[in-house]
Amino acid sequence: MANIVTSVCCVVLAALVVVFAQRRSQQVARIQYEKMGSDVTMQCGSLGDDATVTWKVNGTDVRARQAQDGPRLILMEVDLSSNGLYSCFENPNGERRDQIILRAGTPPKEPVVTCRSNTFPNGFYCSWHLQHPTYIPTDFEVHVKHNQKTLDVLRDPVHKNRCHVKFPQLFSTFKYRVNITAVNALGKASNGISFDDYSIVKPDPPEKVVATPIPKNVRRLEVTWNSPSTWPDVENFPLKYFLRYRPLIRDQWQHVELSDSTAHTITDAYAGKEYIIQVAAKDTEIGTWSDWSVAVHATPWMEEPKQITSTTEAEVILETTPSPAPPSAKPQLGAPLGGSSALLWSSHLLLASILLSVM
């Protein structure tokens, strides 16, 4: 008898657990991905066709173009504004029976794929992107082959749409084949490229570019730089450089190509004009030029204007400069007269004496 009671209790407990799990699963929101522009049907849990329910989105009434068919909600031509948390409540007691997160999006189109070796001869990296957004989570599958062998791919920890591959051999006669497949809940699309190892070599730009004026040379600038730190073997795979510079007052660049030197003296700068300077790098035998380095600004040496450095110089200047008499200066009575002024005064006295004698 005890065994029968125990068995019945276990069965009842199991049934309760199942019911609880079903109800709990109905309360956890599930994500439903749908294509933008399509009509979308959302089912309220496992309710039958004769059930009547009320739907809300983000806690408010559903205002989008819609129709209801028993426990189903039909949205017309969904778009991004249709996204949200939809909840359904069974009538008449209003118990919530299901929750659905609607995410409208698009299936991916072919990704754009590019590959480049900035660490030659160690390896290369490939990056990819979609030209059009999907609005929903999209993953990428990466496959790289060489001579019919699948190569190991290391996904970049920082750039999610980038991977790194080591060269299995250099200057191979077999091409590399990289295939990228974009996948999301609404579909998938693939694209691939093929290339020779030497065709994708492109160093990073030179680093630590510095332009320094040369004392007492008003038309010269000394420019120095470092090879890119990502280039692993400059001795066996040397780089050549391309220097460009121009004064800020002009738009036209002047160019200088250098073999393997990391310094150059500009000798034709305009005196007193600020210059902008950049450098690019390239493997001496293969590949293409790097992007330009970060621009630096510099102005050739300028002679400072001479300044008075002592009071003696000022005194000499004052002593050697004549002081003109004020234009309004007049002789004072009783003051000694000289030159033409004295002669004029004597003439006046003689005229006065003649007039008195006549009278």
Automatic annotation (TrEMBL):
Coiled coil: none annotated. Keywords: Cell membrane, Disulfide bond, Glycoprotein, GPI-anchor, Immunoglobulin domain, Lipoprotein, Membrane, Receptor, Repeat, Signal. Residues 37-88 form the Ig-like domain. One of its GO terms (cellular component) is external side of plasma membrane. It is found in: Cell membrane. SUPFAM superfamilies: Fibronectin type III, Immunoglobulin. PROSITE patterns: FN3, HEMATOPO_REC_L_F3, IG_LIKE. GO terms for biological process: positive regulation of cell population proliferation. InterPro entries: FN3_dom (IPR003961), FN3_IL27B_N (IPR056621), FN3_sf (IPR036116), Hematopoietin_rcpt_L_F3_CS (IPR003530), Ig-like_dom (IPR007110), Ig-like_dom_sf (IPR036179), Ig-like_fold (IPR013783), Ig_sub2 (IPR003598). Its main location: membrane. Gene3D superfamilies: Immunoglobulins (2.60.40.10). It is a lipid-anchor; GPI-anchor. It comes from Synaphobranchus kaupii (Kaup's arrowtooth eel). The keyword Iron does not apply. This is Ciliary neurotrophic factor receptor subunit alpha. One of its GO terms (molecular function) is interleukin-11 binding. Pfam families: fn3, FN3_IL27B_N. Residues 1-21 form the signal peptide. Belongs to the type I cytokine receptor family. Type 3 subfamily. Residues 107-204, 205-305 form the Fibronectin type-III domain.
